[in-house]
Amino acid sequence: MKLKTKFSHLAYSCALILFGSVQFAHAAPLLTPHVTNEVSPAPTANAWIEIDTQAFEDNIKRTNQLLNGKTQLCIVMKANAYGHSIDLLMPSVMKLNVSCIGITSNAEAAMVRKHGYKGKITRLRTATDSEIINAQALNIEELLGNYDQAARMSKWAEANNTTVHYSLALNSGGMDRNGLEMATALGKEQAVAITKLPHLKIDGIMTHYAVEDEKFVRERLAQFNEQTAWLIKKAKLNRKELTLHTANSFATVNVPESHLDMVRAGAIIYGDFPNHPEFKGMMAFKTQIAAVNNYLKDSTVGYDQTYTLKRDSRLANLPVGYSDGYRRSFSNKAFVLINGQKAPVVGRVSMNTVMVDVTDIPEAKAGDEVVLFGHQGNAEVKTSDLTSLTGHILTEAYIPWSNSNPQVVKPLQSQQQVILTNNKVAAKAN
């Protein structure tokens, strides 16, 4: 059926993509919740990202179980929910009554508000003046850790008869990034001065840990507690009106005393926490076999002839490459899953094509699903399988995956299937 939509002026242009009867979303659009266009049943994507919303919900519940019932959970959805799509995850956020969302950009905040979210949105990095000014309608709690910027925002807020709410950032966690250095007289003086500026309302005090190490976190937490106690007394702040927060995912899991009034959880929410398998991975990167061809022993595969076949071989052509985020450094090292079995990558990963050896998977054929990352049956391409090849953290890879490929969500979250792309939303009744 055909349904109409009104597009957001912040949205970007992209063609409608559909894969069967599942949901799609491009990585970082601003979308309206309305619907448009007629849904085609034919798959057209060369590769896609599959998002497990049930795992997302389970991870939220597991995180809440670590808290004491009084500590607030703030779900970090920066970088478009670590590449998992704010648009596709917000129904779960609303369902579970999540009280706080952490973002970095105004576009992310707008996506969250578009879904009718009324809870707290807190910014997790220093914003530019223009970002803060343009975000006032979105009701964002800003991050302030610089007196000069705070003074400018105070003057602007006064001139515009408004109030800027903020969390005060301290450098207790050792990042040397956003916060005031309270170990100096100047830092203490500026912290007190910021709290006295008119038309600014302090809602919380925070820091962020530089190292994932229990001893380090405990030492820095002690500094934070000492510094905040001093500031609250010196500036005559009402402790009951403040939210103190320091804990990231590591501290949330390993250092319970760091929970304070709120934790900011990202990695554990998305299952990117390898030492704790109870937090389920919720992303898979998939494609299909485009064709299977036979090649002779001693012939070479791909650019620069980096791989020589050791036997007569069947090679599967995968329509995905480094333009889709599958890294060139995976060449001759990574493996994929086909019919629940490992197939090694052979030859250079090129811009749009990867070749894999399916000689030992005789049933492999064109159209078969290929898992580049994630589960297939009892087999899995794990985080460590890929990070060990590059020396990078996986988020460096999977955020670009989501920026380059449509996203599929299973299970459907309603009786209506929703297909999301850069500036269009389509729906079709089941």
UniProtKB/TrEMBL annotation:
InterPro entries: Ala_racemase, Ala_racemase/Decarboxylase_C, Ala_racemase_C, Ala_racemase_N, PLP-binding_barrel, Racemase_Bsr/Lyr
Keyword Signal: yes
Required cofactor names: pyridoxal 5'-phosphate
Leader sequence segment: 1-27
Catalytic site: 78, 303
CC per GO annotation: cytosol; periplasmic space
Membrane spanning stretches: none
Binding site for substrate: 177, 351
Similarity comment text for this entry: Belongs to the alanine racemase family. Bsr subfamily.
HAMAP family: Bsr_racemase
The protein, known as: Broad specificity amino-acid racemase
Organism of origin: Acinetobacter pittii
